Amino acid sequence: MIVLKRGKSEAAIAPEYGGAVVYWRFDGVNILRPAQHLNAIKADLRNAACYPCVPYFGRLQNVANGSGDIIKQDPTFPDADPMNALHGEGWVNAWRLVGQDECLAILEFEHTPSPGRFPYAYKARQRFTICEHSLSIELTIENYSSVPMPAGAGLHPFFEREESTTVRFNADRFWSPPGEDHLGTIGPVPDYLDYSGGGTLPEIGLDHSYAGFGGRAEIINGASRQTMSSDTPHLHLYAPPGAGFFCLEPVTHLPGVFGGVTLAPGDTLNIKMKIGT
For the domain with range 2-276, which CATH number is right: 2.70.98.10, 3.60.21.10, 3.30.1370.10, 1.10.3380.30? Predict the structure, then answer.
């Protein structure tokens, strides 16, 4: 485990477990929902405070690549989804440390195609930077294949949730996940899930995406205020009912597809996220 410090700000990173964030705290107060201990992440990767989604976000069900070929993949994390590939390869594999100082860590992960896995070679990099009042993560994916590669990326931070937790962000459109009688649909943002003016999270479970994300979200828990900013065009809101957490995930594409762009050999895709107090 790698510990980064700057003044009263401290974060821990676990390269061996998906390159995940174990915790980030300021003056002893957790900003993200922390893992209880490193073994908790080892037992279930969803216990991390944040993890990367690369080279795609969401679950895939017999999805076609840019050439129209249907590519089937084995489940990446069966405990979360025993039927489908989910959130790519990065979060379920070890990363290696390639650079570090007191406030900075750089991790890399290289993927080689194998049966049942993502069929393109790539290298992913995470750059973590801690400041007195913020934690920034930059996620990059580079196509190592000799052919064009569909690519996407996302970051999956977990925020602590109280009954009065309020969120605020702008978006243009709203994506509803697939149901028994329809595929995922995109349309206007429903009034009751429009957080442009701020609002509390409903008791029903949410697992929905917003398109045309304005690039900045606010999270208010009592006297605690946080901001999450990103350059991604989409934001995914995951808030399971009865849980003491929720997720605001900056992502490059809507769920259910390989990715939002096609990378030529040697090209890269890059996203950034900054969480501040």
Answer: 2.70.98.10
